[in-house]
Amino acid sequence: MCRKRRISVALLIFCLVIALAAIVIIRLRQPLETQRLSAGTVVDRVVVEKSARKLSVFRRGKEVTSYCVALGGQPVGAKQQEGDMKTPEGLYAIDYRNRQSDFHLSLHISYPGPEDVRRAAVAGVPPGGDIMIHGLPNGMGWLGRVHQKRDWTAGCIAVTDEEIEELWRIVPDGTPIEIRP
Predict the structure, then answer these.
(1) CA 46, CA 93: separation in Å to the nearest integer?
(2) Cα–Cα dist 7/76, whole Å
(3) Phi, psi of 3, deg, nearest 5
(4) Which of 109, 120, 153, 178 has the fewest C-beta atoms under 10 angstroms from its C-beta?
(5) What is the pairing mode between strands 45-49 and 62-68?
(6) Helices (H) and strands (E) in the chain — how many of each?
(7) Within the chain, where are the H helices?
(8) Model-level pTM?
(9) Element containing residue 92 per DSSP (H, E)
(10) Rounded distance, CA 153 to CA 176, Å?
């Protein structure tokens, strides 16, 4: 009898933990409080504020909307070399897009720029590259906003799958991007 009671209590605790986890995940996956942008919206500038974990898009100098982001696993400081897990800082451009990414869509950032290449050469290290704004790893879109709880990329800027779909639509190739500390 005691053994069955212990199993019942353990099962009840397990079910409560699962239910609580489901509530937390559902709560975190709720849509951001921003409205989806209309189909004709096109922006002309992107600004990332690393310390605020915020990506904002602008049209004619006016902020259109913003998104919460996750950054490289070592977010403080500018990218210095390949493998340092840092997100670059500086002025770049969105120079191409990758529909076949390992992540749900990606917009390539033109890092490394000439100054980044020069600085890395002086230090005798490769500057790194392949820096993107991207969604979640393919098949992991169900995580939604949970991914923002920790900086997890190798130096990229990550948003939810829904957000990268919107950015893909509103940010044309050639758009300047400023990444601030």
Answers:
(1) 9
(2) 48
(3) -65, -45
(4) 178
(5) unpaired
(6) 3, 8
(7) 2-29, 114-123, 161-170
(8) 0.79
(9) strand 90-98
(10) 22
